[in-house]
Specification:
Low-confidence stretches: none
Number of strands: 6
Strand content: 15-25%
Mean pLDDT: 87
Shape: elongated
Number of domains: 1
Oligomer: single chain
Largest sheet: 4 strands, mixed
Amino acid sequence: MADPRIIDIALDEKTILWRNADIEQERQIAIVDLLERNLFAPVRVHADGYAGPYRVLLRVTDGRLVVDIRRADDSPLEALVLSLTGLRRTIRDYFAICESYYQAVRQATPQQIETVDMARRAIHNRAAELLTHRLEGKVSMDFDTARRLFTLICVLHIRG
């Protein structure tokens, strides 16, 4: 019976160079929300018919995103390697708007915070659509899963 969901997700700690309290909170929220509800189904049919649930490790190797997908028993299933070329600008834009958001939360009026937050959500939504498109033919996932995965991919790119 298919169970197309992620039951465990981790980030390669060697890939994460730096993070602050705001970023750590975003990471934790993304992981909790992702594990609570997600749809993640690799498209490749495996010889034994395995169809979830999955353990996922995200890492960056040689400038590429590696999505290491494992079975529930932690045995290897497949690794997807994705060029980050199309995502880098979106990641930079997202970092910039997040920094503006964190500053607004500390200093701005509620209306200003809401304006920056709307822009942040718009970039995040675009990024989720881009990630879904980039993984098309490799993994089927819902929009919320793509948003949370993008958040975690961003954590791997923080340079301090």
